[in-house]
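Protocol step 4 of 5: obtain the predicted structure for the target chain.
Materials: sequence only (see below). No template structures provided, no constraints applied. The aim of this step is simply to have a reference model before the mutagenesis design in step 5. Sequence pasted as it appears in the construct record:
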Amino acid sequence: AHALRTHWHVENRLHWVLDVVFHDVLARLRTQYGPHNMAVVKHMAINLVRNPMDKHSLKVQRKLANLEPDYLETLIRQKPPLT
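Step 4 output (structure tokens):
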């Protein structure tokens, strides 16, 4: 039972985010190193966005990072902006 819960925790924590937030199933990279390289980039992005202090959803944070350069810089630097 514990192994099953652990498996689903990983599935819900990572793979669901890749499917829903990053639309991983729609990715067209299927040959050579493309899929692996994009998986590494997406995992890095998820780790940057997962901030317990930020109450926005991952989807909203991704959109904010796309629209607001200052917010993107805050995510990358992992510290609050100097204002």
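Step 4 remarks: The chain has a mean pLDDT of 80. The radius of gyration is 15 Å.
Proceed to step 5.
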